[in-house]
Amino acid sequence: MPSFPFLGLVALGPVDPEILRQLRAALTKILALPARVLRPKPLPQQAYHAVRQQYHSTRLLEYLLTDDDSRAYRILGITTADLFIPIFTFVFGEAQLEGKAAVISMCRLRGEIEGFAPSKSIFLRRLLKLSLHELGHTFGLGHCRQDGCLSGFSANLEILDRKNLAFCQYCQALLADHFRDQGLDQVKRYGETPAPGAPIPTADRPRRHRR
Ligand SMILES: [Zn+2]
Ligand SMILES: [Zn+2]
Questions:
Q1: Which pLDDT does position 32 carry in this prediction?
Q2: Which ligand is the nearest neighbour of the Cα of 92?
Q3: Is the pLDDT of residue 196 over 80?
Q4: Domain limits for position 44
Q5: Is residue 194 in some structural domain?
Q6: What per-residue confidence (pLDDT) applies to 70?
Q7: Which is catalytic among the residues 94, 114, 134, 192?
Q8: What is the pLDDT of residues 50-59, one digit of tens each?
Q9: Taking 80 as the threshold, does the pLDDT of residue 193 lie above it?
Q10: Cα end-to-end span (Å), the chain
Q11: What is the average per-residue pLDDT within 146-163?
């Protein structure tokens, strides 16, 4: 059991402090697990692939835990750099299954919707979905096939936008078990929760059926 149950947010390279603040507020509200912005770290050159011009996300996970003295329950790295793992051209993020570290990239989140740049609230909503998805892995969730569930795999922005900002009931039950096992019973809400001061909520686009 952790001595200090909080979520640590670590900027990897330059990240807009306002985005970190809003993400921290929204995650605290939704997870009911206090989130804190920790000391930023520079992007490590050893994780950079010069030909791909991307950072290897698995190495960033290791890097996040190097010299980590934060006592955080989980650490979420946030970067504007583009991420990859060798079998994919890019990834939105990566996490250690039932481990401590997760990382997400903002690089691909500003993609256009039908020719228009996304509003700030849509951008933040995408960021929040990615954060919760990757953190879900650290809490033991695998990829879920329930329609709209946050724990489903997103290969692109369209799929990410179609997801709800919530885990399905099955994943919620698994999360509840995880937190109960960890003695973190105060962590009880994973669904959609308006976060005061954070312009997160906007309506999801109408849900489409899977083919
Ligand atoms: Zn995943
Ligand atoms: Zn699910």
A1: 67
A2: 1
A3: no
A4: 7-105+119-181
A5: no
A6: 87
A7: 134
A8: 999 999 999 9
A9: no
A10: 42
A11: 94
Cα–Cα distance for residue pair 43/108, rounded to 1 Å: 18
CA distances from 183 to 2, 4, 90, 174 (A): 9, 12, 36, 14
- Check whether 210 has a pLDDT greater than 90: no
- Alpha carbon of 211 to ligand 1 centroid (Å): 21
> Could you give the number of structural domains in the chain?
1
How far is the centre of ligand 1, averaged over its atoms, from the C-alpha of 133 (Å)? 6
Q: Is pLDDT of 148 > 90?
A: yes
CATH of the domain at 18: 3.40.390.10
Question: Which residues make beta-bridge pairs with 94?
Answer: 103
Q: Angle at the Cα of 198 (from 193 to 159), degrees rounded to 5?
A: 65
Residue 116 buriedness (CB in 10 A; 0-12 / 13-18 / 19+)? exposed
pLDDT score at 55:
98
Among the bound ligands, the one closest to the CA of 191: 2
Whether 201 is in a domain gets the answer: no
Ligand 1 midpoint to CA 94 (Å) = 7
* Catalytic (active site) residue 134: yes
Compute the distance between CA of residue 199 and CA of residue 210 in angstroms, rounded to an integer.
Answer: 29
Whether 37 is covered by a domain: the verdict is yes
pLDDT of res. 201: 35
The answer as to whether 190 is a domain residue is no
What is the rounded distance in angstroms from the CA atom of residue 41 to the CA atom of residue 38? 9
